[in-house]
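User: For my dataset I need records formatted as: sequence, then structure tokens, nothing else. Please produce one.
Assistant:
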Amino acid sequence: MKKLDPIKQKLERLAELRAAAAASDLRPFLADKSNFVVARAASLAGGLRIEELAPELAAAFDRIMSHPFRLDPGCAAATAIVKALLAMEYLEPRVYLTGIRHVQMEPSYGGPVDAAVELRATSALGLALTDSDGLLFELVGLLADREWRARFAAARALASTGRPDAIPVLQYKATIGDEQPEVTGECLAGLMTLAPERYVPFSDSFIGHQEAAVAEAAILAFGVVRSQPAFETLARRWPQLPAALRGAALSAFAMMRCDAALDFLIHLIEQADEKIAAEADRVLLLHQNSDSVRNRVQEARLRRR
């Protein structure tokens, strides 16, 4: 008789629990030897926001991080645990401080890869929730990480702290740029969120950047901000935007979720050339769960005819 795989059995049991899982159901799985089982249990705990499991999650993290290369190849469990604690808005910085510093180079075809990038990125967002004395030190350090996803998370985390001393750091990083335009865009979004009066005009200058990818990232940053000044600045830019950047601008208008941006897109559906009208119609699918927006789009289509 074929022997049953105990790890597979545990994963199947966790799949059965899903939305009905209770703290008592998940505790044994968080202590399991398999990092895949721990990862699945942590994901359930985070998704259901079972906050009473926070101590067990932190204990599981400590156990795994005592020998991470052996106990957690791929950083699956450690990352899932930090994501769960972040979802619970866990405010003890110790786990996040360990995670943000962890690098785990693992062998792969083509050379070693860092399996801990997502762990560092998620830990940065968690650390930003805390009042750790080393908060800014750690986030600024991560802004120089070798992996762009970690730098991106560092920029987002710095902005989410709401601290005035994060502003010059983000300005400097945006000014010197990054090999990945999304990082620059995230810095600009953070600046416009923290100090819109000064940094909406600052970010506007990046729309004319000589590198199209940087200009596109800057445009999309305006959509993240979702403010009237951001809309007005991007709307003034619209007539002069190159065709290659108009798709990004339309996406940004849709992301803003403000009445002025919605009116702008509806107007384009009614009166712009066919290509722009179709693209404006498409980006408004972002609001497809809104009856009022769907009705306005349908009315605009009929008026166009």
